[in-house]
Amino acid sequence: MQIVPVLLTGTVWLLIAAGMDAHAFQSPEDVSFSSGLDGTEQRYVVLLPEQLDVNVPRDVMIALHGHGSDRWQFVTDKRPECQGARDVALRRNMIFVSPDYRAKTSWMGPSAEADLLQILDDLNSRFRIRNVVISGGSMGGTSALAFAAMHPDCVDGVVALNGTANLIEYPHFAEAIAESFGGTRAEKPEVYRERSAELFPERLTMPVAATTGAHDTLVPPDSVLRLLAALKMQGTPVHSIHQPDGGHETNYEDTVAAFQFVFDQFDAKKAAHARQILSAFDKETTIVCLGDSVTGVYYHTGGHRAYPEMLELALKKIHPNAPIHVINAGISGQTTVDGLARLDKDVLQQHPALVTISFGLNDMTRVPPEQFRTNLEQLIDRCRAAQSLILLCTPNAVISTDGRPINRLVEYCDIIRTVGREKTIPVCDQYAAGQRLKSRAPRTWRLTMSDEIHPNMDGHKRMAEELCRSISGSEISLDAISPPPALTRTQSQLAAGNPVRVLAMEPIAAMIESAIQQQNPSAKVKVTTWPVAGKSLAQLEQDAKDLVRAMKPDLVVLAIPANAAADNDEQRVHTISWIMNWSLSFGHQEWDCIVVHPSVLDPTADLSGASLIRGLVHAQHLALIDRKSGDVSNAETILRAWFESHLRR
User: Which of 29, 56, 359, 527 has the most crowded Cβ, counting Cβ within 10 A?
Assistant: First the structure.
């Protein structure tokens, strides 16, 4: 989703509730996006805490406005429901989001539902998100319950202020609701039914808090009270705040109490699951990560690092002075059979305090389930005998293929979990974490994958974050970690006086020699031009497969045209990823690879392909030559400036 944030400068949003510490939101971002449903422009507002630490995951509050209002109601209104929501969000340093969701008479119709799913996907691509609380007042409270019932996997807590839980029986605003839902109750019975949370209590297993007033004639409380009673009976954490003399409003104290109940449930769940494998890092600590190609360093992460190297960075962020060393013992194509064969040499001889074991993606293709189970048990027993702690890991979530169908992978993940329980070994459930992101933000998850089974570096960062939480008990975000130096091979060739062999896509190829020689006039640069004019993305992928690894150049320069043809969005993602994959060596990176963004050649390039290229290059941890906002320089000037800054290092 392409977003256009507009900063409303000069406005500071203070926490004004008496007795609370002073906090502030940053200036609001009024975000414009093109709806994936119908291409219309839609908007939502984001409020970020003034002290936003990018290294820490955040909870998100979605605040849905009432009938007749828009996205600004919960951002600017001083009414108790709105002020209370903002205040509690600030107190917990949450990201506060208020969407239009097809204002002003939404009622969470199909279009509003699709927009909110898209917004959640976008938020997950921008931030590391822990819990999502969906809330609102009146129509917003109704919509919060409806969305949670339709998409329980996307929601961790619900706060509904003076809403209804049954749109089949709700008598008011019939014309507006019919317009939003695409017809009347008689014409669209399923649309009304699926948005009536009272009919689906079994889906609402997350904490739910609701406020109601006995004298509320605009949105009568009966359906919500019945829903809360059903939820309580099934064991869902529920907090009902019912005012016998109340009408269609919620006071400040009740608003805060409703949210606090949900937060208390989050805190209790976190405390119940809080455990750490390594309790101290005050002495030399070696961790060995044993696994297959997902563990090892290969093309799919840019060829420099993988999740074990990211894990070391994560642990050192939490314990900056600790002598922590993580060893990568991952080899492509291997199974638990191979892991057993090389356990002594590659793992135990390092005298690790902790061994992480991550197999399954290859085992599921050629190691029977019972043998897989036995192999895991033997790995555990031998590590224990060597006085090493063990952490089992399920494989990452994958794109289902005939060779690795999801149901087969789930079977092997279940074996890992069972072995963990029976052998009292903790399990870092990478598969569950991936599936959680996949269900909440399918587009974001897809862009963490280099191919059907291998995550790219963004995916590896997320895996390292899960491992770090399992090992240390602390949450961390690695999203801000930058790629390694871009021109290592090129600089070494220049320093040795050797020719620099370059394979570059046109028309950038014609600019490369002068860009390098401006910094090193005596450099010998041999450029091979890679034609791209008129080629589809599939043809460029085939070129990359045929050309790069056979040539083994010192530098590959990709300039993928934004308008290169693809049959659909999935093919576009797949082929751009593989153009980059084939432009790297199989294992540790043997040559440099940089990408020139389409905007460098065409400042007006603002197509979906151009936006996608930027995201995939970031996810692959490659270097990107990009045009800065407002820069009107020509392509050659931008290229020269980039090479000057990187060759000077």
Answer: 359
Domain identity same for 386 and 528: no
* DSSP label of 219: S
What's the rounded mean pLDDT across residues 294-321? 96
pLDDT class of 28 with cuts at 50, 70, 90: very high
Angle formed at CA 258 by CA 257 and CA 262, multiple of 5 degrees: 110
Q: Which tokens belong to 536?
A: 């589809």
**Residue 338, CA atoms < 13 Å, CB-side half-sphere:** 17
Q: What is the mean pLDDT of the chain?
A: 93
Instruction: State which amino acid sits at residue 540.
Output: L
The number of domains in the chain is 3
pLDDT in tens, 531-541: 999 999 999 99
Residue 18 lies in a domain: no
| Cα–Cα distance, 595 to 583 (Å, whole number) | 10
Exposed, middle or buried, 310 (CB in 10 Å: 0-12/13-18/19+)? buried
Instruction: Give pLDDT tens digits for 431-463.
Output: 999 999 999 999 999 999 999 999 999 999 999
Write out the residue range of the structural domain in which residue 105 sits.
52-273
Find how far residue 187's CA is from the centre of its chain. Answer: 38
Pairwise CA distance, residues 95 & 36, whole Å: 23
The label of the residue with tokens 């356990």 reads: 343
Domain presence at residue 205: yes
Q: What percent of the chain has pLDDT over 90?
A: 89
Whether residues 463 and 553 share a domain: the answer is no
**CA dist 503 → 510, 525, 627 (Å):** 11, 11, 22
Token pair of 359, please? 């197999």
The CATH number for 441's domain is 3.40.50.1110
What span, in angstroms and rounded, lies between the C-alpha atoms of 257 and 282? 42
Q: Rounded to an integer, what is the distance from CA 388 to the centroid of its chain?
A: 32
Question: Which of 164, 161, 152 is closest to 207 using CA atoms?
Answer: 152
Alpha carbon of 254 to those of 77, 92, 305, 443, 533: distances in Å? 17, 18, 50, 37, 63
Residues 524 and 620 reside in one and the same domain = yes
Residues 234 and 300 both lie in one domain: no
Per-residue pLDDT, 275: 80
Task: Specify whether 256 is located in the same domain as 377.
Answer: no
Among 7-21, 220-234, 439-453, name the one with the lowest average pLDDT.
7-21
In a domain? residue 42: no
Residues 291 and 267 occupy one common structural domain: no
Query: How far apart are alpha carbons 135 and 160 in whole angstroms?
Result: 6
DSSP H helices, 131-221, are 139-150, 174-181, 189-194
CA distances from 253 to 25, 256, 257, 406 (A): 21, 5, 6, 47
Contacts of 235 (CB under 8 A, 6+ apart): none
pLDDT per residue as tens digits for the range 617-640: 999 999 999 999 888 999 999 999
- Is the Cβ–Cβ distance between 212 and 225 less than 8 Å? yes
Residue carrying structure tokens 């399920």 = 394
**Cβ neighbours of residue 39 closer than 8 Å, sequence gap 6 or more:** none
Shared domain check, 329 and 413: yes
Task: Tell whether the model's pLDDT for residue 6 goes beyond 70.
Answer: no
CATH of the domain at 79: 3.40.50.1820
Quick check: helix, strand or coil at residue 262? Answer: helix
Domain contains 338:
yes
Distance between CA 600 and CA 466 in Å, rounded? Answer: 37
Q: What is the pTM of this model?
A: 0.93
pLDDT tens across 274-288, in order? 788 887 777 899 999
pLDDT of residue 4: 43
